[in-house]
């Protein structure tokens, strides 16, 4: 990346109001980043406390126009240039085998898990190139290589995220843009605890730990890392 110190950089965090995203956003704010977080549901914006480095922007990330507006906002502060993109928006569906599942489920999983990451990254790339480089982080899933029954659409979409990461890394290495994926298993979020009451959460990956990995991938300390899918699985390889 370029020579800007972390305290003079901007990062976009999609999904920054979610169970994982709030931890990532908070960690990056504490590290001195200017963090631009899109939201769609008004209740989402209330999940983040006010902070001088935080900027919230209402956006429908399925809309190319809204994504362009988001990136323009993030790139609008020359004193704190946009050098990072963290794609955390995602969705999950399970419960039925392929022959029992409408193809609309696959379309929805590909849209939320792959298309949005593609659109946001696509919009940010010209600015990252103009600034001399940057770092993009996407969220995959351990299920992409260790599938389980009943979630073929989700698993296929997360496998596509891994392929997108590798493709982007190859295409933009000459532009000094690094692209990496984090590959969590079960994440210890309120939503997952609610969905699985009684589960042993001691083996789940903590959002705060994942946030530290993402911060590393955004930093100059990871300047030699690109095209990687990095497991972030807590103390367990299951998930």
UniProtKB/TrEMBL annotation:
- Keyword Oxidoreductase present in the record's keywords: the answer is yes
State the taxonomy lineage.
Answer: Bacteria, Bacillati, Actinomycetota, Actinomycetes, Mycobacteriales
Oxidoreductase: present as a keyword of the record?
yes
Entries under InterPro entries matching the protein: NAD(P)-bd_dom_sf, SDR_fam
Which keywords does the record carry? Oxidoreductase
For this chain, the family text in UniProt reads:
Belongs to the short-chain dehydrogenases/reductases (SDR) family.
According to UniProt, the name of this protein is SDR family oxidoreductase
Q: Which Pfam families match?
A: adh_short_C2
């Amino acid at each position: 990346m370029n020579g800007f110190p972390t305290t003079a950089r901007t990062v976009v965090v999609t999904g920054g109001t979610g169970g994982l995203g709030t931890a990532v956003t908070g960690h990056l704010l504490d590290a001195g980043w200017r963090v631009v977080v899109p939201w769609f549901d008004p209740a989402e914006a209330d999940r983040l406390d006010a902070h001088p480095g935080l900027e919230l922007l209402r956006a429908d990330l399925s809309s190319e126009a809204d994504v362009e507006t988001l990136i323009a906002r993030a790139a609008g502060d020359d004193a704190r240039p946009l050098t990072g993109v963290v794609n955390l928006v995602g969705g999950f569906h399970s419960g039925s085998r392929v022959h029992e599942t409408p193809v609309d489920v696959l379309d929805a999983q590909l849209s939320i898990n792959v298309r949005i990451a593609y659109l946001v990254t696509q919009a940010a790339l010209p600015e990252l190139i103009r600034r001399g480089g940057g770092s993009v982080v996407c969220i995959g899933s351990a299920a992409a290589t260790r599938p389980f029954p009943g979630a073929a659409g989700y698993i296929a979409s997360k496998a596509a995220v891994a392929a997108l990461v590798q493709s982007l890394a190859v295409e933009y290495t000459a532009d000094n843009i690094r692209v990496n994926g984090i590959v969590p298993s079960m994440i210890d979020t309120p939503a997952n605890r609610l969905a699985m009451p009684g589960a042993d959460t001691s083996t789940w990956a903590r959002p705060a730990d994942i946030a530290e990995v993402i911060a590393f991938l955004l930093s100059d300390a990871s300047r030699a890392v690109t095209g990687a899918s990095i497991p972030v699985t807590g103390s367990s390889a299951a998930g």
